[in-house]
Amino acid sequence: MGNRLPPLFRDISFHAQHSPIGAFASFTCGQFGSRGGFGLEIGKPGNQNIYIGIKSGDRSSNGPVKVLPFFEGASSNEAGRYDVERAAGPAEAHTTPKFPTYQPSEIRRHYGWATDAWKTDDFEFAIYTPFLQIPDLHRTSVGEWDRALIPAIYATLTVDNTRGTTSKTAFFAMQFAEAGVRMIPTIDDSSSGSSLGSTDDSIRCGFAFRRKFGISARCIDSQRNHDLDPRHEPSAHPIDGRPFGFNRFDLESGIKDPVPHQLGSVPGIGITVPPGQSRTLAIGIGFFFEGIATTGLEGDYFYSRAYRSLEHVLDSALSNIQHAIDAAHHLDEKLLRSTLSADQQFLIAHATRSYHGSTQLLDVGGEPYWIVNEGEYCMLNTLDLSVDQVFWELDQHPWVVKNLLDNFVRHYSYVDQIKVPKASAIQLMGKQAVDSPDVMNTPRTLGTTIGIEHYDIRPGGISFCHDQGIHNNFSPQGRSSYELPDLVGCFSHMSGEELCNWILIAAVYVARTGDLEWARANEHIIEACRTSLRNRADDSGIIVYDSLRCQSGSEITTYDSLDHSLAQTRSNLYMAVKAWASLRGLLHLRQSLGHADASDASKSIIDQAQRAARTVVKHANPDGVIPAVFEAENPGHASRILPAVEGLLYPQFWNEDVRNTAPELVKILKHHTLALLKDPQQRNLFPDGGLRLSSTSANSWMSKIAIFQHVCRSVLGLEADPEIKSIFDRADAAHVGWMLHPISAYWACSDQFVDGIARGSKYYPRIISSALWMREHAVHLQPTTCN
Amino acid sequence: MGNRLPPLFRDISFHAQHSPIGAFASFTCGQFGSRGGFGLEIGKPGNQNIYIGIKSGDRSSNGPVKVLPFFEGASSNEAGRYDVERAAGPAEAHTTPKFPTYQPSEIRRHYGWATDAWKTDDFEFAIYTPFLQIPDLHRTSVGEWDRALIPAIYATLTVDNTRGTTSKTAFFAMQFAEAGVRMIPTIDDSSSGSSLGSTDDSIRCGFAFRRKFGISARCIDSQRNHDLDPRHEPSAHPIDGRPFGFNRFDLESGIKDPVPHQLGSVPGIGITVPPGQSRTLAIGIGFFFEGIATTGLEGDYFYSRAYRSLEHVLDSALSNIQHAIDAAHHLDEKLLRSTLSADQQFLIAHATRSYHGSTQLLDVGGEPYWIVNEGEYCMLNTLDLSVDQVFWELDQHPWVVKNLLDNFVRHYSYVDQIKVPKASAIQLMGKQAVDSPDVMNTPRTLGTTIGIEHYDIRPGGISFCHDQGIHNNFSPQGRSSYELPDLVGCFSHMSGEELCNWILIAAVYVARTGDLEWARANEHIIEACRTSLRNRADDSGIIVYDSLRCQSGSEITTYDSLDHSLAQTRSNLYMAVKAWASLRGLLHLRQSLGHADASDASKSIIDQAQRAARTVVKHANPDGVIPAVFEAENPGHASRILPAVEGLLYPQFWNEDVRNTAPELVKILKHHTLALLKDPQQRNLFPDGGLRLSSTSANSWMSKIAIFQHVCRSVLGLEADPEIKSIFDRADAAHVGWMLHPISAYWACSDQFVDGIARGSKYYPRIISSALWMREHAVHLQPTTCN
């Protein structure tokens, strides 16, 4: 039950995205008054009311029920009884159940890395989401990965009635808005059949929604013979203590009526615990998607190599539940022992869940295909997310990074041309920037496009698509779902940044794994990347030319809906340092392949990197702050951005000490960062102390803040400064507050916050970049394996 | 374009459920201001806005668009421009398209048996749903049924711009509320490739939603060289006249922008027709469900034996479209030529579509499995619907009736006991009736249940479940999804009526097909039915004992939410005549099997039938009207019901002249019917002239009205009475009005009307019983075959 986890001390009403790995599936719950439950391939919380609670007396009694407030209409602000929306489904359902809910003060929530537990005086309910290492699926057999990839999570519902004087009936039920609920036939595993009768532990029951998801429960850990209050006799009802399934149009009828109705929309499972006894229901919560799940590239879920049906998943989950709980406790302990602050631990635990909810491991043509979906947007393998998630993936299952790199090369790379502006274009380019207030992901053609007659067209080189498709629909080869021509702003191309992203992922992958076989096989790609990055730069060494794919538009960065400070790729501080890091990454890759730094190609890389570093340094203002955009007439020139330092992160993965290889760059970036953090005007802080990535925007990205903080501490050594530590501690607390804001809290873990409220990039995987913080505390990041 | 169909003369704003056969799929459209479109396995209209219309000028022009009002927010009552709800999907979609719609006065709708066409001065749009005979799938190969079972329907969009002076761009687009839209890659079939260039007719383009449904279009019937106004030159734009696909967040951007956005939620196809030319876009509208679709019994769609993917379906539909249009016109002609009134033709055409939308032909374990879903409720093969649909099915593809009978025997039959009331029960039984106002399908335990201690338990016999499951979830063997114990009213058991239903279906099947092989193989079932029907009756010959499956409740009839007049099975007039017909059916089956009427078993059947007939006759009041319920203290005793005569329908299928075999019964029922129809108080009419099945209820079922009218004409010969003809003509007009009421019209064709508005049993298959009327006009009902 996650007993060792301390209770949360802040607002406990927030959704958590409980997910297996690779199933693009979640069971979301925890925000009071909100629907949640099962979500399969939808990028948002499910649409079910969840009723977890207790009825006084046995199931047939007229005793009251009392439930956790996990349903629409359950307000945490009023005591007592609530109307519940009429369930969808046959028009027969006119019931209006009303029942009391536990008040927040009556609930304690314990939120660990892999355990999410609610405790009341009547019962404990806990959900376990242990995440195990997925071994390289090219090299392992089913028995080595089936536990890691089971599309199920686990729960327990415990009623300790050893001191009670009457029976208590515990239940877990859900109200479905869509039609298709069914009972899973109750199975009695007792080998002796009816002659000796079944035991509490031999009965499995559950319910499902069509073939897609459902739950199965069985009693474990029943205590009859010890801890009993001697006043109580064993129950007179022989079926007490055995789990049962139910289904009616409303919760109370379902609990009470022994005959499930297949037309019902509120299925559930329950157990009556006689006085003097204690029971724990083990609950498997499973998902199953049969057949081909995607278009374009056609893949089915890799787990279907081991699991044949939803029922198979649920049976396996119930068989495996003790291992799963142990693994969850092990992970809880690991995070607890990290010495990270409670706020930091919360953010990591929250991020880990939402990351897993977006993961999708397919079998495409017999080969594994790793996908991380882009949260609410469900874009497949958005490459500018991948680069931020790679640290986590390299710790957990590094082969998925290789899989990603290969799939981008094979299916989603392209060779473009670039646009070299004529004088006429240069005059127009300052006005091309998006000069707008924060734009909430609105399509932006607000800036000025510049006809391609103002450009000379020259060879560009290889680059990579922003993503590989959306909503299970793979894009055509060499095309993302996101990028369009003729735009300035959102939905334009990201050729320059995605090129850097692929290089950086490749470099950290080879550095972390030593996989020279892969590096050798991809040397021609690495070389093509070098050429491409060179062609996109001028003497400044940084990317200054836009891809012809933009046509009259211009390239943007991953901060597609922030403001002008981080909107354009060209002559952008964030991109300049990232390009510098990419050049260092290319050099590292060449070193790994045995190429001397004195070789012509390596020399050209070193030279471009030095020029890029000098370009950054030279643009620093007299006060040491570097403009976000180097183009003087661009509105971004006045912006002050924290992500300037992001590129300093990567070299540490190949053991490069940037203080030695780029001392001037590091020095000016440290100066810049300190100036921004300690700015008397606090232009890079929100009023609550949260970090503002751009001084001119109310938009901030949690995943990028996490990287920024990590670079500050682990590369720039700023943690030694008590003032910085205090700023960061206060920021961590603010960021937790952002997640817990009632609007944000519906979406579990989100990335894009406007004035501290999740407004975009919701239900998002990328905040797993926060797990970088564990490195600072020398947490042994060895993943938990199946064995 | 269904040119020979006259335009509708009444309200043209109603949904029609355009469906292939056996795919449990519909493309619903036609009600102004409502969503519709694709619905797969949902029992209700789809959730898309549909934009069909014209833009002045070519696609890049700034000309206005004008669309049919097939989208939410398009009111037919105001001219001009409307706000359209923001599409769901990525948060980027903030656009608020506004465009003018055609007013009702600008639209003519032509609604034939298999063509539904809208004509404006600018274009014509027509949907074709030809229904072909499905050959016995046990005995035919794929090539003999693939056209009949293709999960697609067909449409054309024609712009005749031969007299125009500017280009017109026609389009068909949809706005999806759910995420997962994709473009189908444009295919150019021109064998010569780019050297000779593609032609208008060689290009196919389309869009889809994931792998589930979509459309594909190609140009046919382009007229360039004749009918041209000599003033016009061919278009200067070489791509004019070729179909194109698009996809953006809003319609107008999509039409205008040549680059589709994979993030868009408004995909479409279009074609620009230069002045002086005419074009027709052929459109395939397809569905595809991959893999196992059901639980319990596991089946996939039979069509997947011939079609491998949605794209395969769409390609095949486009290849087949001319045949399909020809078949649709053939069917239109057949109904037009029937000499049925326009109102009757409308009801049949409307019913045919909704029937097909509920059909689902599966492959279960290698064998075909025929299912008709129960409209909005999606119950599988509700047997009390099957018995009303059997006439149609026997005309179209009689083998599905055998399939249904067999599957009920194999999976959904049971043997019960019956409850013989002791004196103590008889005292209570009058109060057991549901005495309530019309209950809108509300769960009813309103009546008084009677403990089984008041009964003697005796052998019952074989009967059949109410249904086989719900929402693709098959029920456990021998159990329906609907029936529950301990109820009086809705959701109670229908053992008696379903027994009669199986007998009647078997009898008409054998009579119609002469399939003695089947009859012989099932003689033991027929014999078991005889025993069962005998055991449920007392000396009265009619069903008076309830099944023990009811426990403390009592059996109900298919009129589960009408009132007391048709609620209970026991001692019910409707059931008495139905049981009499079932006995005659058993006798016919025995005759077919060569058993003499003088055999003991046949004698016992004849005897029971005579007793049943006498029971009905004897309960007639002095005025010749027979009470709905024979129990004097039952509130139904005062009700006057039209369905009393329903049972007279079946014997005509085995060529029995009931005027000879049961003259007294026929005489009293004719008297009863005339008394009700000509009642000076008009208790069995609604104020609009519609027929009221029970004098005491505002609930009326259209499918049952159709059967009643048919019996009146074809068995009782009442059509010779001009007063009756006038009443029926007025009733037909009223019933059309019921369907067209704005609340009803959303649900296409519905069955259960309360005061003339569809309130239950919506989107329903059963009204196909109206096709019985074609028999009265000697319409050659030979189905249209694939060849």
Going by helix content, strand content and strand pairing, the class of chain A is alpha+beta
| Assembly classification | homodimer
| Spatial extent as radius of gyration of chain A | 28 Å
| Residues in helices of chain A, as a percent range | 25-40%
Give the strand content of chain A.
Answer: 15-25%
Greatest interface and its participating residue counts? A-B, 48 and 48 residues
Number of strands of chain A: 27
In DSSP terms (H or I, runs of 4 or more residues), the helix count of chain A works out at 19
User: How far apart are the termini of chain A?
Assistant: 22 Å
Low-pLDDT stretches of chain A are: 76-97, 192-196, 225-236
Shape of chain A: elongated
Mean pLDDT of chain A: 90
Strands of the widest sheet of chain A, in order across it, are 6-7-8-9-16-13-12-11
Main sheet properties of chain A: 8 strands, antiparallel
